[in-house]
Structure formats: structure tokens, C-alpha cells
Amino acid sequence: MKIKAGIVGGAGYTAGELLRILLHHKFVELGGIVSSSNAGNPLHQVHDDLLGDTELVFASELAGDEDVVFLCLGHGNSKSWLAKNSLPEITHVIDLSNDFRLAADQEFDGREFVYGLPELNKSRIQQAQSIANPGCFATAIQLALLPLAQAGKLTDDVHVSAITGSTGAGQSLSETVHFSWRTNNVSIYKPFTHQHLGEIGESLAQLQPQLDLDINFIPYRGNFSRGIFASVYTPSDLSQDEAREMYKNFYAEAPFTTVSDKEIHLKQVVNTNKCLLHVQKLGKQLLITSVIDNLVKGASGQAVQNMNLLFGLPETTGLHLKSVLF
Ligand SMILES: NC(=O)c1ccc[n+]([C@@H]2O[C@H](COP(=O)([O-])OP(=O)(O)OC[C@H]3O[C@@H](n4cnc5c(N)ncnc54)[C@H](OP(=O)(O)O)[C@@H]3O)[C@@H](O)[C@H]2O)c1
User: Fold this and answer.
1) Which residues span the domain enclosing 77?
2) How far is the CA of 171 from the centre of ligand 1 (A)?
3) Which of 101, 143, 186, 278 is 20 to 30 Å from 297 at the Cα level?
4) CB contact at 8 A, 5 and 22
């Protein structure tokens, strides 16, 4: 039996990435791919690389019999879309925005959203009706910190620098995604105030309830289209060997998150649903680096991972993606 999957916000980047994955998922049949800007146009008119893969067209509404609906809308728009379009209770919703990620937002219109980070909440995701898919920076940073929180070892302030590609900002044009501005350039934005800090803090406190520290996060815009490289450090009494062992044990059952003994770099994960972590001790500081593809493990790949868990499929179904090292 196939899972019928619909998408809302079909012309955007995360929707395009979902289509690339779902078209090759052996247990998925596509339902309505809703687009407010492109209803009636072929999917490949917007997502050019799908030419030859599908002749499906964008719809103005869902087919109505979807088992799961992915909301790929900008922040705030998922809430308003759900308020206007009530879905049957049995239809699962996987939302990619930040509308339902925080505990205070997880109940909406009779739906209960579970925070969809499988490395943290796998058993709750398997039982969930609806999923709030994590943010991209939040995914990279949480995966770098969860093992420390689990061991109660987050005892001092945490410093994070993380650089993202231009697709992180979505398909709308703006000065900072304009080629002339972005190429050969680096800049920061929202220092210490990025909106993902809320979900990061809640997940860490779930594992280490007495958490009392600052996460000092500086996000960077990078001169590339895909991926996030995060470096995270905090003072620690663990030795390098103890820390590496702890991280490897924490992620032993996580099919997409792997602790590397060698230093890591972005191209190891671009186009895949992987997160790679590297842990080293330098003086008093434990330094953890973390890399993901913002559109895959940071968005649409993780959304499919959550869908697999919701429907009782192996977590990795449809997510054995080919990397592009060179
Ligand atoms: N890009 C990433 O790396 C990333 C990672 C993690 C999470 N996210 C989150 O995922 C969501 C989608 O991101 P994205 O990068 O795919 O954004 P995007 O490329 O800007 O696409 C969003 C889509 O939403 C639809 N839309 C735009 N304005 C709308 C409105 N006012 N009301 C209803 N629909 C509207 C449009 O699709 P139609 O024209 O087809 O209707 C648009 O293409 C965002 O909440 C984002 O924060 C993104």
C-alpha cells in the first residue's frame, strides 16, 4: 500500500527538495501539489530538474484523500493555511515552518504537533498525529549538543558559529541572495537573537532539565548554495576520548548521524540526509563541529524521515541519497 502525500507551497525550495525525494520513494504516491503561484503549470516548469521525471502539474487545492500533507510555507503561513483549510483528523501534517516547534505552539486547531527531531523524539514521532519539523540551524546545533545534555554535562556557556548557504533563505529574491552580493562574500545576521535559539533551548532542557546557560549563536551567510557548517564549543571536564565515546554511544542507533574520527567538511553531506559530527578537546574547550545539508537533513529529508517513522517504515526508506564530493 502506498502513502498518499500532498504538498502545500509547492513552488518553494523545500517543496522542490521534497518532490525530488518523494518521486523516488517506493511507498509514496503524490497527491495534490498545491501552489498559489503556479496552479496548472507542470512541476518541471518551476523545478527544472524534474523534467523527464514527472508530468504532474501544480494544483490549486489538495486531492482531499492525502494520508500526509507537508506544509512548505513561510513562517506564520502554516498556521493561517491550517486555520482556513481544515484537514481530516486522520491526515498527518508535517510542517516545515517554525509555527508549531515550541511547546507553547504545539497545539493548534485540535492538532497536536510533536517536535520532529528523530535523534531526540523517535518514539513520540512514531505515535504522532502531526510533526513540527526542526529548523536547519537548529538541527545542526542540537545534534552537536544533545549527547552533552543527556549526560548533564552542559554546565557552562556555549558558543556557536554556523554558516549557511543561500538556499536557507528560500526562493524569494533579496539583496543578500543576489549573486553579485553573495559571491565572494561573507556576512553575519541576527547575532545572539536567531529564532532557532528557542527550539534548541527547549530540546536541551528536555534532556537536562536544570539547564542554566547562554547559547551565544552567531549565524553567517556563506558564499555557496547548500549546507550548514556549525562549530560549537563549551568548557568541559570530559577528555577527548570520553567525549567521543559518549557521542558515538548516543548516536549508535541513529542511521543518519555519525561521529567522525577525522575533521569534517561540508561536501561530505551535501545532497544527503546525513549529519556528521567531529569532537575534539583543545585546552578546556570541547569543540564539536557539525555539518548537514540545510534542505535535506535540515528540512525535506528530515521531513521524509519523520514520515517514515509515522507510517512504520524503516527510517531510511527513500533517503539513500547520492552525495557529491567533487
Ligand atoms: N530553505 C531551507 O533551507 C529551510 C530549512 C528548514 C526549514 N525551512 C522552512 O521551510 C519553510 C519553507 O521554506 P522554503 O525555503 O521552501 O521557502 P520558499 O522557497 O520561500 O517557499 C515558500 C513557498 O510558500 C508559498 N508562499 C509564499 N508566500 C505565501 C503566502 N503568503 N501564503 C501562502 N503561501 C505562500 C510559495 O509557494 P507557492 O507559490 O507554490 O504557493 C513559496 O514558494 C519556511 O518556513 C522555512 O523557514 C527552510
Assistant:
1) 3-133+297-310
2) 7
3) 186
4) yes
Residues 228 and 196 in one domain: yes
Considering the candidates 136, 277, 292, 321, report the single residue annotated as catalytic. Answer: 136
Ligand 1 atom, smallest distance to 97 CA:
45
SS3 107: strand
Strands 275-282 and 257-260: parallel
Q: Tell me: do 177 and 272 sit in the same domain.
A: yes
Question: Is there a single domain that holds both residue 98 and residue 125?
Answer: yes
Position 321 in a domain: no
Residue 323 lies in a domain: no
The CATH code of the domain that includes 76 is: 3.40.50.720
Is residue 326 domain-resident?
no
Per residue in 220-234, pLDDT (tens digit) is 999 999 999 999 999
Residues 118, 236 within the same domain = no
Give the pLDDT confidence of 99-129 residue by residue, as tens digits: 999 999 999 999 999 999 999 999 999 999 9
Cell 577527548, located at residue: 240
Residues of the chain short of pLDDT 70, as ranges, are: none
The reply to whether the predicted model has a pTM over 0.85 is yes
325 falls within a domain: no
In this structure, are residues 240 and 304 in contact, taking their beta carbons and an 8 Å threshold? no
CA of 73 to the centre of ligand 1 (A): 4
What's the number of domains the chain is made of?
2
Distances (CA, A) of 19 to 5, 57, 233, 263, 271: 10, 12, 36, 32, 14
| C-alpha to C-alpha distances, 70 to 15, 96, 209, nearest whole angstrom | 8, 7, 31
